[in-house]
Design goal:
The chain is mostly helical. It is 79% helix and 0% strand. The chain has one domain (10-74).
Length: 76
């Protein structure tokens, strides 16, 4: 039976979600390990994190529009 996966340390999350230079340095270090699976995991996490950020922005925009529309409706 495989051991359960350990949660990622906080610094790795910060690097994966942080500014591009830190992420690029991490990705370069991972590529140097020649572990294609780990490289794919790192790239997938970053890609999904960027999607989460974009969806949150869309959701915030939609929420602001909804709030404005409700206020306008209530003023009728």
């Amino acid at each position: 039976m495989a051991d359960p996966a350990e949660p990622l340390p906080h610094w790795i999350h910060e690097t994966l979600q942080g500014p591009a230079p830190g992420y690029a340095a991490l990705l370069d270090a991972v590529k140097a390990m020649n572990d294609w699976g780990l490289e794919a995991d790192v790239m997938r996490f970053r890609s999904l994190d960027e999607c989460v950020i974009a969806y949150k922005a869309q959701l915030n925009h939609t929420h602001r529009e909804l709030k404005s529309t409700i206020i306008a409706r209530d003023q009728c």
